[in-house]
Each structure stands twice: as structure tokens, then as C-alpha cells.
Amino acid sequence: MSVSVRQPANPPDALRFNEIVGLDVAKQALLFLAVDPSLAGVALAAATGSGKSTLARAFAALLPDNAPFVELPLNVTEDRLIGGLDLEATLARGERVVEPGLLARAHGGVLYIDGLNLLDPGVAAHVMDAMARGIVQLERDGVSAVHPARFRLIGTFDPGDGAVTGSLLDRIGLIIPFAPQGDAAVRAEVVRRNLRRAGAPDAAGDDAMLRALIELAREQLPHVAIRDEQVDALARAALSLGVEGNRVDVFAVKAALASAALAGRADVSDADLEIAARLVLLPRATRSPEPAQVEQQAQPAPNVAPNPDRPDADDPASSPANQKQTPQQIEELLMSAVEADLPADLSNLPFAAQRRGKTGSRGVALNYRRGRFVRAIPGPLRGRKIALLPTLLSAAPWQSLRAASTGSSTGSPLRSASTGSAAGAVVRITRDDIRVRQFRDKAGALFVFVVDASGSMALNRMREAKGATIRLLQNAYVHRDQVSLIAFRGQAAQVLLPPSQSVDRAKRELDVLPTGGGTPLASALLLAWQIVRQARSRGVEQATLVLMTDGRANVALASGQVGPAGASTGSASTGSASTGSADAVGADREQIARQIRHLAHRIACDRINAVVIDTQAGYLSRGEARALAGYLNGRYVYLPNAKAHQIAEVI
Amino acid sequence: MSRPTIARQPAVEPAFPFTAIVGQDEMKLCLLLNVIDPRIGGVLVMGHRGTGKSTTVRALAAVLPSIIRVAGDPYNRAPEDIHDAPPTARANGHAGVSSNTHRLDKLGDRPKPKVERVPVPVVDLPLGATEDRVCGTIDIEQALTRGVKAFEPGLLAQANRGFLYIDEVNLLDDHLVDVLLDVAASGWNVVEREGVSVRHPARFVLVGSGNPEEGDLRPQLLDRFGMHARITTITDLALRVEIVKRRRAFDADPAAFAAAWEKEQRALRNRITRAQKALAGVALPDPVLARIAQICMHLGIDGHRGELTLARAAAALAAFNHSPRVAWQDVVAVAPACLRHRLRRDPLETVDSDEKIERALQACATEP
User: Fold this and answer.
1) Of A94, A133, A141, which has the smallest distance from its Cβ to B144's Cβ?
2) Are both A237 and A271 inside the same structural domain?
3) What does the pLDDT read at residue B6?
């Protein structure tokens, strides 16, 4: 299992940094990162084959002292990532030998991740932790160790594959959110350079020059000054773009300083601020800036409370004698320069995409049955899969101890396995040694059908909903989706089918479909919400509500129906949400409408997708279903005579 | 290819000074109150990324007063702890018992053990930690070289009488959560391994932090935390500029920066020490206590943990402010952090939990 990770940073025939064309912004970002490692990293949006891995390698070659270049495979296991006990060496030497993980091996160099957005969340969490602390702290398998892990991260992501985990991206200083345009001339140049790469003497010279340039900039960096109003302007720009967190200001300022240092200047210019905004702030925008705010006149002098007795070094910004730009003016300049880069559809930006919550959470969960093997952990077998090798390995160190106390009650030997050839040799394995395999798997989605079983059309609706449920389940096996069905009629909604993957079960439980009576829509929404919440606690992320109704509710929730969330685990499988006594009359109607709005809002807030299928005949429809879809922030489909296959298609 | 390294040389990372952290007052107050009275039961810090959650928690260590422990005790026990309840360590069979565990037994007989003053431990429970290192296990090296069963204490032992910090607490493995809940409830850690049975005190203040967007916390774990601090992005421009300045100054020269803040750090440390001493003498007037109970009733909080935490946190705040008794304002100041995670989740509710608490406080303030 040796993944070769530590190649010499750049083999002699590889392309050099300066030869790589068409990635100018990326190169600039990388130069900043070379100058100031505390910018933490560069994240590049790029489609496959756009030369990014070449670029990353070429970059590593620019760093001093043969900096290591470590590529993180996407399917890395936890022990390879953070390190662990080297059992072989430990047994041989009789002392604990720790093998550092990939994160520690990247110390002082470059960690390259191709496909940031495909990274397992558990792996991403470790990468983030190392970036935050500059160390890897190991507390596992009898090993306690701390390894330094300060590296520059270069990561790529193909925006088409979904979003990068927000907190990971947040720790990476510089982001290039768009893949470079496929410019034919540039591509031709790439090919040309690739062809003539062997022994281009000037390129090697360029590399040496770049290295010297970086070295100079590094020396210059501590001497670059940035004015308070410039920092203020960057912070303003961050605010008006709706950037989350305060770390970003620090990154922006550092990027501006690095830019000035590379230009050999001792002051930060407008151009430096602009490039900083472009590489740090803009990619994190979650909203378009509002044009010219009104609060410009009344800007109180900055007074920082926590520490009044500290000598304030210098405060030229507030003295009017110093006729400089105000932060507002700088920000305006900055924003007008950068705004052109803001895409019309902000959702193309990585952070805005997450706020939408559609692609952000990928719905993966740890389990003991299937998926990608993540690690072996101690635990009872109970039908899980044993990790044989880790189990034997964990038993290995104790063999001589256990042999010494054979016959006594050392541990509780589960079984002794004879190794066959060596007569009498026995491996003693105790319960504590057992390791089970833990997997990470894409959790399937949950579809909750919420079907109006009241009124005259109910029977047809129910039958088709049942058909759609079973149809979905038949297709769902591959995706491990689950389907649940709630019917509402009379005083209460009722779970007819708790979340299930079983076609048989669905057929059985949906055998009897009661219909007729009032329309307790609120009760149904509440029940659906509870079911989704419970499913979420089991790792199901994606949930879709399929509501088949005319949206005309006439029964309110009973008071006290709403219990503490989570307390009703299991109740949803059998329970029904009881509702108030009387059908809606007069003032009740307003209350019902309010409850439905609140519940729908809550469902939308919890990022539960919704599809409302309006089953009302056209001439009767009063638009309630459409309004409901609006509250749910969901899709509205008009299917007065919904058939099972139509419903399945819609979803 | 790679040079294997021998374990354990903790790299000393200079921490950003606690007193130099700009804003996020609620989180800082919650942490300090737990230092003054560890019985408050820990802090859960939830908030946006990039708001200094872990920086703040890791900065705490430097302002903590020291504790007195038996010299070299791996469980940080105070001399009186050892007389009260000697940890039991016994080995079955005829395998040797570690020097460690021997010493544990002997300490119980000794009338006056040597003591030393050490900083209150702040122990990181890192991602990917396994149960054997959290709870402690048999020392693998000794087992291999000398065939001896020596108990090697884990993170829970290190954290005894101190703080146990879990960053990204919502990503913690379920089985570790179970272990932590067990130990946190009893204050004892029990390990049975290779016929060696060890039981040692593990009382610690649990501090967790995380980003709510990364996933929900198990309700049982949520409930364990005495206080729940919420933090958000600082939007005040002057504060933001100040954050950048301080961060730059720190990055440029951590030692000089720390030196510049040493006066404030010392002042805070002294204030905490004074508050710890004063705490026992802080009075909780009956009318205030009655109102505390009213608030919890008003908010429909189950059990008595809400009241207890609120009373303790308010008392700790009074002690921190050199006040001889708990005033209503103390209760008002800590109520949101003590109660917001104990409210029922009501899907029909559009009111923010903080606002609900605010209303309950107002209602109770006006009642006679």
C-alpha cells in the first residue's frame, strides 16, 4: 500500500513555472502564496486537463530547500493521512515507532489535492485541522504524537462536480473561482511549449529568476505598510459582498501585502487592493453589493474598546490634515474595479452555491456495511464486518504477554487460532482486539409522500401515490433511497409507511388506504418535518417532500401537539399527529393558514426540497396549492389526474 | 522514503493571547465562568467559520491559574484526592504491574506526598482519536520489551481537573461520544485491558466547538454542556481593522506580541484567582433564586439542570465582578448562554430562542 508521494518536486523534463501559459491569475496567486505561506493555499477552479497539476508541481520547484510535494489521493485512509503506529518497526525495535502521515510529510512544502470538492468530509476535516494548527496531533492506537504540518495547499475543483466544503475553502486564502476560458491561441501555445520543452535553456533561467524574485519579495514583505483606511476598505468590501467570518480580512490584507512586496514596493497601492479583493473576497461573495449606501456621512471615529490603556502607535487616518482617501472612497474604487468580475448569477460562486444548500451537503454517512472503507475501529462485531488484518495487528503486541499468562484469566480469549504449520503456535485474540470496518457511503435521499386523503378525489390520489411510491422504490435500490408515505384526512395525518427501502413492505402497508373527511394539512406537514428530522439524525441528508393536495386545509393543529424534537423517535413510525376538534370555521381559517405558513417556512429553512402536485380540477382551483409551493420554496406541478408514472417522472 | 519518528515531543505553538482577542464577548465570558466554577458544566461554542472559536479556546490555557497536584501524578490529583479515593489498579494473573500503577497504590498510604504547582491542563481531543488513547491503555512499548502490563493514562487522565477541548465536536465519532458522556456523568474513567483494571478520576470541563452547518449535535451531548455560546461574524469595521492589526502583529513576532499583552494576561489571571476564592462566599438571595426557577418554568425547560447551571453561572459572574451576592443583572447576563440549548425545538415557532429567553426574563423581572 505504498502510494508514491514524494517525488522530487519537479523532474528535469517537466514544464517550468514560467512556461505554463493560460493560467495567469492562478500563477499570480501562487506567487503570493510562495511569498507568504500564511495565505495557506490556492484553490483553483479548473476542468480536467487544464494543466493544473503541472502548475502545482512547477510551483513546488520554486520553493526553497527541495520542498516536498505531496499529492493527497482522494481515497486516502485515515491512518495514511495523519499517521499511526508502524507496527513492523515497533515489533522489530521494541520501541514505539510512529509513521507520520501525508499531512506531516507535506510539512514545509506543498500539499496538492486534485478534486477538493470530491474530498471525503472526514479527510477534509483533518486537512482543515492541520491548516488551523500547523500540526497533526495523533492520539490513536496507543500512539500519542505531534508532528509539524505547515504546508501550502494547492487544490483544484471542477465546479461542475459540486461545491467544496465551505469550511475547507474558508481556510484557503486565495481562490480562483472560474476555470480559465478555453482560448484556442492559449491552448496552441501550451501544446507548442510542451513539444519543445526538452532543454529550453531560457526556461531554466526564468525559473532561477522567479526564485530570486520570490526571495526578494519575502525579504521585502515585513517592510510593506498598509494604511488603516485600506484595511478598512477591504473589510467594507467583505461586508458588502456578504462574506462570512473575519478570517477573510486577514487573508485579503496579506494578499495585498504580498502583491506589493512582489512589486518591490513599500506601500500598498490600489492595484494591490484590487487583486487582493479579486482573489480573496470576490470568490467568497454571497450577495451582490448594494449600490452606494447612505450611511456614508455618519462614520464614527474608530474607537476600539477592549484596551484603552494601550499606547496607540500612530493614528494618522483620523487626522484631517492627512488628506488621504477615506475608506469609503477606496472601497468604491475597489468595488467598481472588481464588480465587473462578479457573475450575473452569483450562484456560480463557491460560497453562494453552498448557501443555497443544494450541492453543499453531499449526504455521506459513516456505516458498517458498505461504501468506501475509511478505517478499522474497535467495537463489537454484532453483524459488522471484521477487519481481519487490523484485528491481528492489534493483537500482535500482546502475544508474549498473553502467552506468559496462559491459563489465568488474562483478558477473555474468544478463540485461539492455530497457525497450522508451526505446531502449537497460537494467536491469542481477545475481545479488545476486534476491529470492525467502517465505511463512508453516499446516504440515499428520502422521499416523503404527503397525500391528501380527504374529499372525493382522494381514492384516485391515494392509488396513484401508492403506485408512485412503489415505482420509486423499485428504482431506488441503486441509490439507496428511502420512501415514506403520509396520508392526511379527518382530524389527523398518519404515517402509512415509515421511511423504508422495501418494496414489499410498501405494498403490504399501503394495502388499505382510508379516505374521506377533513383536510388536516398542517398536521401532515408537521409529521413530514419530524420524519425528515429523524432521518437526518441517521445520516440521510437529501430529503424531498412530495405533496399531493389541492392545498385547501380546514383542520388546525391541536395545542400541545408539538413535542420536543427527537423525543418522539419512533413515534412517527406508528403515531399520528392528533389535531383539533372542529373543522375550520371563520377565525380558525386564519389560524390554520398561519400554521401552514410557519411549518412551510420551517421546512424550507431546513433545506427540505418540496414538490407540490396540485390535483384539483382546474375550474375549482383557487391557487392554494401554488401558494403552498411558494411558502415551501418548492416546485409547483399541476397534474389534475396524476398518474403514478407521471408523478415518478416529476420527481 | 520517510524517516520514522519516535513519539511524543509536543511542539510548542505560541498561542494568541486571550486578552488580545477582539470581540466575541459571550464566548469569552462563558469560558471564564467555567474556570471560576467548573461545576457549570462546560461550554459549547457554535458559530460561523472564521470567527476565532478555536483560537479563543486554545488561548484560554495561558490565563488559567495553576493547580496543586501530587508531584508527577499523571492524573493531576490533588493530595486530598488521593486520600479520598485511591484509584484502583490491580492486575490479574502473574504478569508484572507497571511502576505507574504501583505508585498509585503506594500513594494512598503515604501521609504527605510531595506536591507541585502546574498549569491547569487544557487537553485537545483531536479528530481521529481512538478510544485507547482517550481512555488510556496498556503501554505497548513496555509490553513488548519487558513483557510488563503497564497502564498508560490517556487524554482523560491528562484532562483531570482541567479542560478537555473538542474542535468540530459535531464530527466526533458516536462511540467516543458515548465514552465521554459516561465519564462526564460519573467523573471516573474505568479501563479494563489485558487483565489490568484501572479506575481514575476524570473530572474536566468539556469545551466543544463547531459550525452548525456541518451537522447537528446529538441531543444527549448537547444537554451535557452547561452553556452554549453563539458567535457570529463581527461586522463592526473598527473592530475588524483591529483584528487584522493584531493578527499581523502576532504573526510577525509572536513572542513580542505576547510580551506586550502580558500585563493584561496577568491582570485577568489574578482576577480569575480572586473570583475562584470569592465564589464560596457569594450569596444567592432567595428572591433571585425564585426568579431563576420561574424563568425555567416559564420556558418549559425539563429537569433541573437549567436552574442549577443558571444559578452557578450567575454566582460565578458575581464573583468575577467582585460582588458579594448574585444580582438580577447577573442572571440576565448569563441566561441566554445557559438556556438557549435547553429550549424545546418547536417547528411552529418563528421566534428566535434568544428572543424567547429575553421575553421570559422580562416577564419574570416584573413579577413580584
Assistant:
1) A94
2) yes
3) 41
Question: To the nearest whole percent, how much of chain A has pLDDT over 70?
Answer: 69
- Please, are residues B311 and B289 in contact by the beta-carbon 8 Å criterion? yes
The answer to whether residue A502 sits within a structural domain is yes
CB contacts of A78 in chain B (<8 Å) are 128
Q: Is A247 a catalytic residue?
A: yes
Write the residue in A95, A141, A402 that is nearest to B132 by C-beta.
Answer: A141
pLDDT of residue A411: 43
Query: What is the 3-state composition of chain A as percent helix, strand, coil, each rounded to the nearest 5?
Result: 45, 20, 40
Interface test with B, best of A246, A361, A409 (most B CBs within 10 A): A246
Mean pLDDT of the region A172-196: 66
Domains of chain B (ranges, CATH numbers): 19-231 (3.40.50.300), 286-366 (1.10.8.80)
Domain that holds residue A338: 224-289+324-356
Residue A46 lies inside a defined structural domain of this protein:
yes
CA–CA separation, A146 and A82 (whole Å): 10
Q: How confident is the model at residue A103 (pLDDT cuts 50, 70, 90)?
A: very high
Say if residues B32 and B320 touch (Cβ distance below 8 Å): yes
Nearest chain A residue to B346 by CA: give it: A562
* Closest residue by Cα to residue B275 from B327, B227, B329, B315: B315
- The alpha-carbon radius of gyration of chain B (Å, integer) is 22
Which range among A203-207, B1-5, B196-200 has the greatest average pLDDT? B196-200
Q: What is the CATH number of the domain that holds A636?
A: 3.40.50.410
**Count of A–B CB contacts within 8 Å?**
253
A467 & A341 share domain? no
Choose the most confident range, by mean pLDDT, from A194-203, A297-306, A434-443. A434-443
Give B-chain residues touching A222 at CB under 8 angstroms: 252
Q: Are residues A454 and A400 in the same domain?
A: no
Note whether A397 contacts B: Cβ–Cβ < 8 A.
yes
Q: Check residue B64 and give its pLDDT.
A: 93
In chain A, the number of structural domains is: 4
CATH number, domain with residue A328: 1.10.8
Q: Which residue type does A328 have?
A: Q
Confidence class for position B39, pLDDT limits 50, 70, 90: very high
> With contact defined as beta carbons under 8 Å apart, do A486 and A449 qualify?
yes
Residues A172 and A278 in one domain: no
CATH number of the domain enclosing A131 = 3.40.50.300
Distance between CA A168 and CA A614 in Å, rounded? 41
Residues 6+ apart with CB under 8 A from B127: A122, A125, A126, A129, B167, B168, B171
- Least confident segment among A6-15, A171-180, A216-225, A268-277: A6-15
The stretch A317-325 carries a mean pLDDT of 48
Which one is predicted more confidently, A484 or A150? A150
Supply the pLDDT for residue B365.
77
Instruction: Based on the fold, state whether residues A37 and A149 are members of the same structural domain.
Output: yes
For residues A620 and B304, the model is more confident at B304
Q: Of B50, B235, B241, which is closest to A232 when you measure between CB atoms?
A: B241
Question: B194 vs A410: CB contact, 8 Å cut-off?
Answer: yes
Which residue in chain B has the smallest CA separation from A252? Answer: B244
A93 pLDDT band, cuts 50/70/90, is confident
Tell me, yes or no, whether A415 and A458 share the same domain: no
Residues of B acting as catalytic residues: 305
CB-based contact (8 Å) between A262 and chain B? no
Interface of A with B in 117-156 (CB under 8 A): 121-122, 125-126, 129, 132-135, 137-148
| A505 found inside a domain | yes
List phi, psi (to 5°) of B273.
-60, -45
CA distance A460 to chain B (A): 31
Chain B residues in contact with A94 by the CB 8 A cut-off are: 141, 144-145
From chain B, the residues in CB contact with A238 under 8 A are 240
Same domain (yes/no): A625, A640: yes
- The catalytic position among A96, A150, A197, A247 is A247
* CA pair distance A464, A247, nearest whole angstrom: 53
Reading the block at residue A486, the C-alpha cell is: 403520509
Q: Is residue A604 a part of any domain in this protein?
A: yes
State which H helix or E strand residue A546 sits in: strand A543-549
Same domain, A423 and A465: no
Q: What is the pLDDT of residue A10?
A: 53
